């Protein structure tokens, strides 16, 4: 069943790529949308057979590939990967539909989108370290091309920066995985066959640190974040939705799956450092967003801050905080998607993203009132207003992390208040006030253009009212994952040092 989730986007890419040249852009878009909906439907079919009570891997597939290298085609999903898998399928549909029918070079554009989807999906379900790296790298070149060809004025610079940073991330992750397998004496790179318990504390810390930096680039964490504002801003809205909504989750997913799960004894030692890095990212993202004049760049910096919440929650390593981390991943993806989409609509209809130029969009006659309403909802969700999915995600993160990191959690709560500040600035300057130009009648947003925002808004609202529909998929898995984490008390640290000493 899982292989079909990889095969469908690859098949879609092949069909569109080799479609006869007489095929119109509308036909190619309809084919791409049909394939994307097929991927989503198959994900729903898997959900109907998913055992909510099981914390372990389900729907496993295992075929020998290159046994001499320890590389096997081993797949599986659990409560950590499945919500992100569903998010990926959902946002791929949004990205394809939201791009409209005017995309240039559709025979290249849509196959690249599907290659990104295949790489992300494969990474989430891979249960072999080398297989994960292969899928992790698969989305690198397609996203580079999507930014470099269909991006903004500085697309070349942004695409190259993304390529360099992400390539370095992949190199570090591969080095860490090779070190884990070789030093632990494992003949296979299968996750279930690897144990780090026989490694010294120093070795574990070095390997874990390599993975933290590698995945930290992808998240990205401060100071490894400098590629993000350029890539998100220069990417088209649809590509930005994929980048911020799901590609960045490969970093947080990898950190939990391969950091916390493979190094449960050492995780508690690096937890305080990770929590500090998370707080720095949260505060930096909030203050940087406040200083922006470009609303798309403001949303990009807000993403840095909200990804920091996930790191703090993962560092705390409690059942509730880890469950909150998974919920925050999904919440962040949905909220960022609606914000980037609405920003794209505003730029398309008005021709600018500058706060100093935009105003009066709530004007019922000459403005974009419904678009402004969606923007307000996205800002409220990002600020953690009760009743929306952002609130329950942040509340779980704060509640689960406070017992372990009270100071860091309080700083994150303060940063959450700053989120309300910069979104209040954005909404006040763009949506309210009077239109400066009395002759300015902005083009109306068509009903078909509102569909992605409407679907995202309904999803954000429903999951905010019924968060159990989201958290029930992950709770058994996250509870089992943190069961092996040892609290980092001084006496226990001393015992570990003596135990792991060579």
From TrEMBL:
Keywords: Membrane, Transmembrane, Transmembrane helix. InterPro entries: NADH_Q_OxRdtase_chainM/4, NADH_UbQ_OxRdtase, ND/Mrp_TM. It is found in: Endomembrane system; Membrane. It holds the Pfam family Proton_antipo_M. It comes from the Bacteria. It is a multi-pass membrane protein. Residues 126-419 form the NADH:quinone oxidoreductase/Mrp antiporter transmembrane domain. The chain crosses the membrane at residues 33-54, 75-97, 109-136, 162-185, 205-227, 239-260, 266-287, 299-323, 329-348, 368-393, 405-427, 447-469. PANTHER family: NAD(P)H-QUINONE OXIDOREDUCTASE CHAIN 4, CHLOROPLASTIC, NADH-UBIQUINONE OXIDOREDUCTASE CHAIN 4. NCBIfam families: NDH_I_M, PRK07363.1. Belongs to the complex I subunit 4 family. NDH-1 shuttles electrons from NAD(P)H, via FMN and iron-sulfur (Fe-S) centers, to quinones in the respiratory chain. The immediate electron acceptor for the enzyme in this species is believed to be plastoquinone. Couples the redox reaction to proton translocation (for every two electrons transferred, four hydrogen ions are translocated across the cytoplasmic membrane), and thus conserves the redox energy in a proton gradient. This is NADH-quinone oxidoreductase subunit M.
